[in-house]
Amino acid sequence: MSILNLVILVLVGAAALAGVVLALRAAKGSQTGEAQMAALSDAMTRLSDSQAALGGRLSQLGENQATAQTRMGEQLQAQERAVAKLLEERLADVTRRVGENLEKTGAKTGETLAQLQERLALIDAAQKNIAELSRDVVSLQDILSNKQARGAIGQTQMEDLVRNMLPPGAFEFQYTLTNGKRADCVIKLPNPPGLIAIDSKYPHEAFARLVSAKDERERTAAEQSFRTDVLKHIKDIAEKYIIPGETADSAIMFVPAESVFAELHDRFPALVEDGFKRRVYVVSPTTLMATLNTVRAILKDARMREQAHVIQTEIGKMMEDVVRLDKRVGNLGSHFEQARKDIADIQTSTGKIVKRGEAIESIQLEPAEGNGTAVAAPRAQPQRELLQ
Fold first, then answer.
1. What residue segments make up the domains of the chain, in order of their start?
2. What is the pLDDT of residues 273-318, one digit of tens each?
3. Which of 76, 89, 158, 363 has its CB surrounded by the most CB atoms within 10 Å?
4. Each residue of 95-131: b (16+ CB within 10 Å) or e?
């Protein structure tokens, strides 16, 4: 039962009780005792009826309230079931989405981790290469700091270039001249110019100080040291490897570093000019290749000139053979002409013989008079045909 129904019932009971009280008061003021008792009895009766009606209404209200509560409970249960089902569906959907997102996230995380591992592997390989390169650089620095090892590097590079550019027999390594000096390499050209010496030089210390100079004073000192070293090399080559009557009047100074060669021509042109004056030409690996290519062309031309007389002799002999062949061909032509003439004469004779045979075949034999013997009747022949 709801609070509103209880309030209504209380109000109804209070109204009935108030009616009884009013009836009693009215009967008390105007009637006698019997009348009052009758009125009281009537009022009690009405009050009892009212209570009975009120009880019936209360019972009906209780039943209605129970029915309403039952329906409300059923509705609440249905709503609870619907809400629970909806919550289950929503929870299942959220769980599915979360599972899919977790799966996608896990896949992406796996791909990212795989890529990260690949990149880490590449980084490890790069670090190993850098470490190896660092060791190689340190080893190269150690090699360059050693004059003998540095000279061996330049010598090896120069020898490779010469072997690749020139034919065998056109050069010789570690060639000893008549003055007792040994050149790193000599190129054997025909006289003139003769032997051309190549010496490998690498002024590494002075160049390294020049590159690492931090201020003007250090740079000036490094330039002076570099100039002194290069000039000394040029003078040594000019004095040792240029011998009149034995070698050419020039020699080659090979610098196995393009950077040193570029620095020399860019900042020290006076040294290059001094080398020209002393007939010592400074070359780098690139310019040495161009020089050797020119030398190869000179060697080819010289060898062709050496073989020119042989070629001329062979050509003279070939011309004699050609003249002899022409004479023999002429004789053969004469024989062919005589044979053609003889064949023509033979054909003329055979033609005559054939005609005479035909003439013999055309003779007709007639019987002689008296004895029956056949006598040939001569056929008139042209006089010209018989004379042939």
1. 150-306
2. 888 888 888 888 888 888 888 888 888 877 777 777 777 788 888 8
3. 158
4. eeeeeeeeeeeeeeeeeeeeeeeeeeeeeeeeeeeee
